[in-house]
Fold this protein.
Amino acid sequence: MMVRQTIRRQVREARRQLSHAQQASAALRVVQHVAQDAYLADANKVALYLANDGELDPQPLIDWYWARNTQVYLPVLHPFSTGHLLFLRYTPNTTMTHNRFGIREPKLDIRLLIPKNELDVIYTPLVAFDARGNRMGMGGGFYDRTLSAWQQGTGPRPVGLAHNCQQLAAIAIDHWGIPLPELITPDQHWRF
């Protein structure tokens, strides 16, 4: 457990050290990768996230999808089911709030909710990844729970988003960990 905490701390620090220009360039290069993938480019309903703690910023990708009239959704901490996420529609006019982790999310409004199985793609943040598609998150298991349906053959296609500096040689995953089928960094669109 201590090793995982050390890795999380080191990788989070590495991504926080990226300059504003490096962050902006990385985000735009990810949009280029998505635009070149027919499935991702033509998706109708996608879930993204708002960058926190040096994560790869998906805002240019959100803007790109909005320009294509794609419906964009953001994760919201489930108010009753601890450790689970809901997905709410996100537009430039969405009322936002901060969750218990200090992360911005749409204010809970049942009218904006979409069942996760109706999403085409869920773009996931992560702390680290390896060349086999294993991902290390923040340790809460939110995305592992969310992606468990996909692992069983149903649900939206998960795609990780990360900076190049977040790649590790290997990640030991727990039995509940959900490997990603693909991941996009500024330099590469990985398919596992």
Observations:
- The first helix runs from residue 2 to 16.
